């Protein structure tokens, strides 16, 4: 990398708004750990933002997914449907519970799990009397809602719960269909969010579990706090975790949540500019955007029209040369050693192809117009 260029990050936090004020309040009140008012304030404001009755804060997005599976009492005999093209944290909690992931290939329209594959397999199992999956984990990748209507329909028919991994998609909304006007994370039995440093909302590290079910919300809080019963005698009624969010993290999270309308507008404006450049680009396609969705564009991910990995890698190298951090997306999970023997609904070749040919361009909410145009200049070089 040439050091004469200013580095442009892929997705970095923007610690604006009330972050400093709220952190000062933590210091002034001495509430920096698990006691203090910010966790509850953040939970209430978050539930209102996403449109669920309850939100339970926890330590990470991975912890949120783990707790979601515990809420379903998943056992080692259970299967969970999960996309193969996702970040590893979507699947690892399934392994924590020694349950069986069943990997679903991608659909090209949204890069998310292929609803047709889910529907076909569940109907096949119904006909042949085979055991149903314990849950379908719907992941909303890169800020684009998954095509969830057909999945909800088949899951309702057979009483299969849906867990949404909305870690990458806070604020993404359905604009048509059964869930028109609803945000990701408010549709399944349980929704999971991440506030890791590169996510649209960060609190250093953190997660959230959303649900409309009061019993589940209570148990989620219980599991994240070592399943400790009320009273001074340290009695616990099941195996829980120390998955608490600290008051300091929640203070940052609440301040960031207040900025979400602005953050979403910025992400969408950056995406619109990239879209305009890539519309007729001979090498790259614009980021996915289904007509029924209002994506958050957490990451702006383009795909090589042809040439696959070599084309993608050439563009990544051109960007790296001038200090621009762009990145491939994840390798499909069925290609990792610990999941190589797991069941798949198909060979996963669409996920492999998308993974090999896609790259994410810088889209921090604080990305300046000047920096954005520097990225675009490199991408435009492909035109000549
Ligand atoms: C970031 C992420 C997670 C996990 O979140 P952490 O807070 O890093 O534990 C889970 N699933 C997906 C799809 C993610 O991108």
Automatic annotation (TrEMBL):
<keyword id="KW-0808">Transferase</keyword>
<dbReference type="InterPro" id="IPR015424">
    <property type="entry name" value="PyrdxlP-dep_Trfase"/>
</dbReference>
<keyword id="KW-0032">Aminotransferase</keyword>
<dbReference type="InterPro" id="IPR015422">
    <property type="entry name" value="PyrdxlP-dep_Trfase_small"/>
</dbReference>
<dbReference type="InterPro" id="IPR015421">
    <property type="entry name" value="PyrdxlP-dep_Trfase_major"/>
</dbReference>
<protein>
    <submittedName>
        <fullName>Aminotransferase class I/II-fold pyridoxal phosphate-dependent enzyme</fullName>
    </submittedName>
</protein>
<dbReference type="Pfam" id="PF01041">
    <property type="entry name" value="DegT_DnrJ_EryC1"/>
</dbReference>
<dbReference type="InterPro" id="IPR000653">
    <property type="entry name" value="DegT/StrS_aminotransferase"/>
</dbReference>
<comment type="similarity">
    <text>Belongs to the DegT/DnrJ/EryC1 family.</text>
</comment>
<dbReference type="GO" id="GO:0008483">
    <property type="term" value="F:transaminase activity"/>
</dbReference>
<keyword id="KW-0663">Pyridoxal phosphate</keyword>
